[in-house]
């Protein structure tokens, strides 16, 4: 932990949203900041000049190892792999690694709610943020950021002791963190980002760091019905809240479903929170996200009316099972945020209509077997695109007589896949972009892919 950044030589790797925000913050407290990205100034955009004006030194177009010679600390943005040669060289030189979330946690005055998980963390974080915004009393505020929305490090001077702070934290961010949030939730741990972490053991260890530095006055929130999360119970040092669809006599503090109602059990009392039919989110996985959000907000002492209104008015996160358009009787759904097969599996469970499924992108070295079985049972047509097409095609095999799946198409590019979907879908079908892969073979991020999808679909005539 660096107590005084003034005059420190800081290298930030990655000049996207997180890297730029951290550069502005550190330059503002008089650190000497070098912002390095392999992209060109034109690819990064208009922020380049504004960063130069505040004294940030930009090294763009490559990652030259020589910039490590006069550096005190290296800050990694979320997408920077630990296998990058400049990161390996920094470690070999003994330079400390950190990131914007760690620096934020070192400096923030308010208690923090941190949320991680392989799936559902964006929806759950957004729900908790909505509830917190309704719960907080002026002049205090609720702040939501981290892996979604605003990199909150830029707003440290504005965040006050009585504010609510909610952070979504990825395994990439947790890798370098040595501080845990006051309330730390692990929604689930299933295979994801194995292209980054290598093994499930290393991936799980990264997720578990959200609990590692808690103390006896802190609170952990775990999923009773996910082994990856529940196996971390021995790591809990303070209080424990749990969530799950089913009630058990072992619940001391937590949430469950009973008689069509979400309940919060707290200090021996069963408290009804919201009827299931008031929840607008689709799918059982989203019901689990609601249960997680209520458990987190219960642990934070937020009022029931804030929970009810925050949940009942929420129709979903952009790019997560997002309705785009109905065209010629076909419903087009954007689920581009589903960058792992398990998330596509959850999306399939959310529809009863015939599905034309768009699958592909850049693979994360994850297993496809379980999704393949479900595709044969639930999907009428699959359209493959991108770098992972051949791997997915091999996992799917061929359509079998008597199953729901009747055709698998290989389209090559994403645009060709959309054109194919428009041609093969019939009235009553759902065209579902739930790719099971990252977007990095063709797009900057999943948001760019989702926005391209939405714009393309909106122009159908």
List the helices and strands and how they pair.
Elements: E1 9-13, H1 17-28, E2 32-37, H2 41-44, H3 47-53, E3 57-60, E4 73-76, H4 85-92, E5 97-98, H5 100-107, E6 112-116, H6 121-135, E7 142-146, E8 164-168, H7 171-174, E9 183-186, H8 194-197, H9 200-212, E10 219-223, H10 227-230, E11 239-243, E12 254-258, E13 261-266, E14 269-275, H11 284-299, H12 304-312, E15 322-327, E16 330-334, H13 341-348, E17 355-360, H14 369-378, E18 381-385, H15 389-396, E19 407-412, H16 414-424, E20 430-433, H17 446-458
Can you characterise this structure?
This protein is of the alpha/beta class and 461 residues long. It has three domains: 9-98, Rossmann fold (3-Layer(aba) Sandwich); 101-312, Mur-like, catalytic domain (UDP-N-acetylmuramoyl-L-alanine:D-glutamate ligase, 3-Layer(aba) Sandwich); 322-458, Mur ligase, C-terminal domain (Protein-Tyrosine Phosphatase, Chain A). It has helices at residues 17-28, 41-44, 47-53, 85-92, 100-107, 121-135, 171-174, 194-197, 200-212, 227-230, 284-299, 304-312, 341-348, 369-378, 389-396, 414-424, 446-458, and strands spanning 9-13, 32-37, 57-60, 73-76, 97-98, 112-116, 142-146, 164-168, 183-186, 219-223, 239-243, 254-258, 261-266, 269-275, 322-327, 330-334, 355-360, 381-385, 407-412, 430-433. The strands form three sheets. A nine-stranded mixed sheet has the order 7-8-6-9-10-11-12-13-14, with helices on both faces. Strands 15-16-20-17-18-19 form a six-stranded mixed sheet, with helices on both faces. Strands 3-2-1-4-5 form a five-stranded parallel sheet. The longest helix is centred in the middle third of the chain and has 16 residues, at 284-299. 47% of the residues are buried. The model has no long low-confidence stretch (mean pLDDT 93).
